[in-house]
Write a structure and sequence with these properties.
The chain is an all-alpha fold. The protein has two helices and no strands. Helix 1 packs antiparallel against helix 2. The chain is rod-shaped.
Amino acid sequence: MYISSRGIVTRNFAIAIVNGVITLIILLIAPLGLTAVISNTFLVTVASFFTATFADRIVRFLQPSASIPEIPLHNDVPHSSQLDARSSHEIER
């Protein structure tokens, strides 16, 4: 599955917003000051964004690259999809 870099940033931003809203709800229930609630929510949102971006880079690193060309085993033999008949002395036992 291929996602463009704009799609990745949008997804990571959405993850960060959802985590920030959950944190805001949890912290508003706790008896903290408004400054502590806002700063903690902001820090969780930023940390979620960078964590998702870091996880995307790890996944991209672990995925096999599609740009690796196949290495032909025999350079002098033309590639053909047809089977060639072999004589009895060519077959190894």
